[in-house]
Amino acid sequence: MHTFAINAQMTTPTLPPTPADQTDPAPKNRRSFFAAAAAVVAGGIAVLTPIGVGIASFLTPLFRKSQSSEVRIALLDQIPDDGTPRSFPVLADREDAWTRYPAQRVGAVYLIRKAGEDKPTAFTAKCPHAGCFIGYTPGAKVFQCPCHTSAFNLDGSRVNGDAEVAPRGMDELPVEIRKVKTADGQELAEVWIEFIDFQTGHAERVPTT
To answer: Are 99 and 145 part of one and the same domain?
Structure first.
């Protein structure tokens, strides 16, 4: 037992000397710690890599787009053959990662069929200026955008050319006629289009991605 002398203040006790063969264990302990930490990190990477791949595969459907842009619009007999435009909704299936939503409205088109023609012309109803829905004025026989007063002829061209706010004419879409037979053997002609959504505000037609 050590004894301590008490004067005006307490003195610091004298510790016994360190034996000559006793070494500081700190370096060894540090090496062990870093080795263990490295092992943990390596193990974590090995574990997280397949997890990350699995998560990416799981979430991929969230960004999956429809594989086809061909859409059935109407029967050919539903379109007047006197050149009068008729508007039809564009219905297509929508999907998220887990659910399919059939027959959702994704846009609208105008179909124009002239006398003697078996295939109509299709224009998207989306204005190329800012994306507003284009209307049709029967009396004037022009298409008109209610947002910024752009006007289009029945062939899709701009009424006032470059003076129009719209940077280009209405966007025409590819059309295909498909013959089908009903259960009772009747043959019908279906109008299909390739529905393409174009960017607005450009003079050129650029599909959206």
So the answer is: yes
Tokens of 116: 């003697």
Two tokens, residue 15? 């510790």
The structure tokens listed for 58 are 């799981």
Report yes or no on whether pTM surpasses 0.85: no
Euclidean distance between CA atoms 43 and 38, whole angstroms: 8
Identify whether 176 is part of a domain: yes
Higher pLDDT, 59 or 138: 138
Q: Which helix (H) or strand (E) holds 49?
A: helix 26-59
Has residue 175 been placed in a domain? yes
Average pLDDT score over residue span 159-179: 97
- Residues spanned by the domain of 43: 28-61
Determine the pLDDT at residue 29: 55
